[in-house]
């Protein structure tokens, strides 16, 4: 596996109500970027880190893969897409400080 991703790859859960008003915990990764063009999936792992010892091994509780997404070269970049309704929702809830290209 080659690491083509940069940015903050660790996130604490943020307790918010979802778009239906139900309590939910979200893990927000607002500054991830992929360096090379291609089709990718990201594996997200949920781990429990002991409060008493951050340097010890920690238990991985579960993992999930993202949907496949495409990264374009600058030459082939089709333009910025409008922000998703979920991104706009997070922005309104102030769960995240930067939403690039929010429209």
From TrEMBL:
Signal peptide: none annotated. The keyword Nucleus applies. Residues 1-100 form the Velvet domain. It is found in: Nucleus. InterPro entries: Velvet, Velvet_dom, Velvet_dom_sf. Its main location: nucleus. PANTHER family: SPORE DEVELOPMENT REGULATOR VOSA. This is Velvet domain-containing protein. It comes from Smittium culicis.
